[in-house]
Write a structure and sequence with these properties.
alpha/beta
Length: 186
């Protein structure tokens, strides 16, 4: 059994490896295939409310996906960071987003949503076939998932979204790491 420090080092090594791999990968100009694959997912199709990350840098693009979900009449929630915690904020149109100090697009409103969400689409640096996820290292998503579960006694459907180059044989995990129900790799 690996020690906690070994897992921390393994995660750091994998983050470096995946970041290098992602730099070599060009983000697709055409995102219709991306959106079609996500929108055809049974969890997303059946959901009336969807939490989806706002893409940043080389992440799988989500701006058009967000617009499509809004056009379909779904309640769309996106992440907002306040006081080093991630919250869900309802988005009514993409123009409600502004760049944060770190350059990540976030909603301008600070009206946090604490209700139930049907489906969550989550980014990550790496995923494996079991649904383990390697994030950026800040723990924002895992802490949000833990707070959500405490409040609602269950987690919604959680989907990891990534490029095929981000799929690895095994992501090292710790007890607080949340498994994805599905991973969609493009």
């Amino acid at each position: 059994m690996s020690t906690s420090m070994e897992i921390v080092h393994a995660k750091a090594h994998m983050r470096t490896m995946i970041k290098k791999r992602k730099r070599l990968f060009r983000i697709a100009k055409e995102t219709r295939t991306v959106h079609k694959k996500i929108l055809l997912n049974t969890c997303v199709a059946a959901a009336s409310s969807v939490f989806v990350y706002v893409s940043y840098r080389s992440e799988v693009p989500t701006h058009q996906l967000i617009n499509t979900l809004l056009q379909q009449g779904k309640d769309v929630y996106v992440p907002k960071i306040l006081d080093k915690k991630m919250y869900a904020v309802r988005l009514h149109k993409i123009s409600e987003l502004r760049a944060s100090k770190k350059g990540i697009m976030e909603p301008v409103t600070q009206q946090m949503y604490g209700g139930k969400i049907d489906c969550m689409i989550t980014p990550g640096l790496a995923f494996d076939s079991v649904g383990r996820r390697l994030g950026q290292g800040g723990g924002y998503y895992d802490k949000y998932f833990a707070r959500y579960q405490d409040a609602h006694k269950h987690l919604p459907h959680i989907i990891g979204l990534c490029w095929q180059s981000q799929i690895v044989p095994r992501v090292p995990t710790e007890p607080h790491d949340t498994l994805m129900e599905h991973v969609i790799a493009l």
